[in-house]
Amino acid sequence: MNRTGSGTFDALAKLRAAGHPIDLLDERQRRVFAELSETEVALLNSIKKRLDDTAGEVEGQELKLV
């Protein structure tokens, strides 16, 4: 966990709350995510939200290669 001036920041909890599948990662990968700063987590959450917001426009399209 990262420490900030306001106390303890739990990056994994913030990522989970935003719907990132953190628990599907292996322990080493989770450690990397656990060390992210608040700014980095906010950026990932922002990107995920933007992708989720456009999911209706993107999902359902399939690329088939022959």
| Element-by-element helix/strand order | EEHHHH
What are the segments in which pLDDT stays under 50 over at least 5 consecutive residues? none
Strand order of the largest sheet: 1-2
Q: Which of globular, elongated, flat, extended, rod-shaped describes the shape?
A: globular
Share of helix, binned: 40-55%
Strand content: 5-15%
Q: What can you tell me about this protein's structure?
A:
The protein contains 4 helices and 2 strands. The chain has one domain (2-50). The chain has 66 residues and is mainly alpha-helical. The longest helix is centred in the C-terminal third of the chain and has 16 residues, at 38-53. Strands 1-2 form a two-stranded antiparallel sheet. The N and C termini lie far apart (47 Å).
Provide a brief overview of the structure.
Helix content is 53%, strand content 9%. It is mainly alpha-helical and 66 residues long.
Task: Please give the structural blueprint.
Elements (H helix, E strand, L loop, with lengths): L1 E3 L2 E3 L1 H7 L9 H8 L3 H16 L1 H4 L8
Antiparallel strand pairs: 1-2
Q: How would you describe this structure in keywords?
A:
single chain, mainly alpha, two-stranded antiparallel ribbon, 4 helices, Aroma_sacti_dom, Aroma-sacti cluster domain-containing protein
